[in-house]
């Protein structure tokens, strides 16, 4: 890695929630604030994102948090924090619904603390003002189908036939996305027509309602997940960057639907990995024709209305797996590679700090490409130098950066893994 600029520049020490004042000022009247993380298993990334989210909700009127999680499981959290009955009387039981690997990503005590705060904060608010919690991801093909069928059987018998037609199409593949994807990847016989027809029918029903309610919105969203998940799994088997793009395009489409649902003045907080929220145009992802949430949201909403915060650390520990589907374990995160963004920030001072990208305009060396560490749910500390550093123009990729010199692994709930194990051919682990 190349040597980077060594002279200090303006930064702010991170000690408590009041240390975020410069960040709140820089965010201004942004409509979408994207909060990243350099891994899915680091405690401080979750706790600092919680601190930022609380201030955004209390001081700037943000309406919901949207995370890199599946829609059905996250919607149960949404119902819980808004005080609706969902069968879960404790946050521990609630978060055990995130029972597909990696279970620790949302089933952890750090998220439990956020969820309990949201529930308490919502208690005195009218229904229209309660803060929501939603999932942006695309993986939940069968779970979303089950939610659709359950809803239409109870609420809309006219749609039962269309829903059962989709279920019957997927049934021969034993609820296994890998089996379905491999079977239909190179032949025209698939379930695309059936899922598109179901989505169309559900949307027609929604358009006929005098006032769309959240349950109906969720049913339509599950239909959208089914459409895009079917597309995602087919693309995944064929390889290349298309499956990544399908996934991130789905997440942005979901975000836009949520903003529209909450009204023209709605504001959103996004929790996702740096690799999703940091603008892909300022990384080597662009060479592979990969786009991401950060790029698309900036393009669609305007850079002046979007604020992206990256996260990273110099060393510490993390929860991850040695391979996809492997048991989670606490791993050491070694000192950052010399010449990387994280190593440079440590060399400036071994303190937790906030950096605003606008303060780096006078440092041309830092506006060049620098290696920036990214740890996925699959991780091996011994080989991280071969694939865990993303070449990035950091001040353009993010609007601000939160640096934690030494981090600790998050605290999982140890949720029992679901019997329908995830496929092992995911090309991306972020």
UniProtKB/TrEMBL annotation:
Protein name: Erythromycin esterase family protein
Organism: Adhaeribacter soli
A GO BP annotation: response to antibiotic
């Amino acid at each position: 890695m190349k040597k980077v600029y060594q002279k200090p520049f303006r930064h702010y020490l991170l000690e408590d929630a009041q240390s975020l004042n410069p960040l709140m000022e820089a965010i201004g009247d942004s409509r979408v604030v994207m909060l990243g993380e350099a891994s899915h298993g680091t405690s401080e990334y979750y706790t600092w994102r919680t601190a930022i989210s609380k201030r955004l909700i209390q001081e700037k009127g943000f309406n919901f948090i949207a995370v890199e999680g599946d829609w059905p499981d996250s919607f149960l959290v949404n119902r819980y924090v808004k005080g609706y009955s969902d069968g879960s009387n404790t946050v521990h039981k609630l978060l055990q619904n995130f029972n597909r690997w990696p279970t620790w990503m949302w089933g952890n005590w750090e998220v439990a603390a956020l969820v309990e705060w949201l529930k308490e904060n919502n208690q005195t608010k009218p229904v229209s003002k309660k803060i929501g919690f939603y999932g942006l991801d695309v993986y939940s093909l069968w779970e979303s189908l089950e939610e659709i069928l359950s809803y239409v059987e109870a609420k809309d018998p006219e749609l039962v036939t269309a829903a059962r037609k989709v279920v019957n199409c997927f049934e021969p593949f034993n609820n296994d996305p890998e089996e379905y994807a491999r079977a239909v990847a190179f032949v025209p016989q698939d379930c695309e027509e059936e899922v598109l027809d179901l989505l169309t029918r559900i949307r027609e029903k929604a358009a006929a309602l005098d006032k769309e309610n959240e349950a109906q919105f969720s049913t339509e969203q599950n239909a959208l997940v089914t459409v895009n998940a079917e597309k995602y799994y087919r693309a995944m088997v064929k390889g290349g960057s298309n499956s990544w793009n399908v996934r991130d395009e789905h997440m942005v489409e979901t975000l836009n639907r949520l903003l529209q649902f909450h009204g023209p003045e709605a504001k959103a907080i996004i929790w996702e990995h740096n690799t999703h929220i940091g603008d892909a145009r300022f990384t080597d992802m662009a060479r592979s024709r990969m786009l991401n949430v950060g790029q698309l949201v900036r393009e669609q909403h305007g850079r002046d209305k979007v604020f992206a915060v990256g996260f990273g650390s110099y060393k510490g520990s993390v929860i991850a797996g040695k391979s996809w589907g492997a048991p989670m374990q606490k791993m050491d995160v070694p000192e950052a590679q010399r010449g990387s963004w994280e190593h440079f920030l440590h060399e400036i001072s071994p303190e937790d700090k906030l950096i605003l990208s606008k303060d780096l305009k006078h440092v041309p060396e830092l506006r060049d490409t620098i290696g920036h560490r990214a740890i996925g749910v699959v991780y091996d500390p011994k080989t991280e130098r071969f694939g865990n550093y993303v070449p990035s123009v950091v001040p353009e990729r993010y609007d601000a950066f939160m640096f934690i010199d030494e981090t600790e692994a998050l605290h999982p709930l140890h949720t029992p893994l679901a019997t329908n194990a995830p496929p092992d051919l995911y090309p991306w682990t972020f």
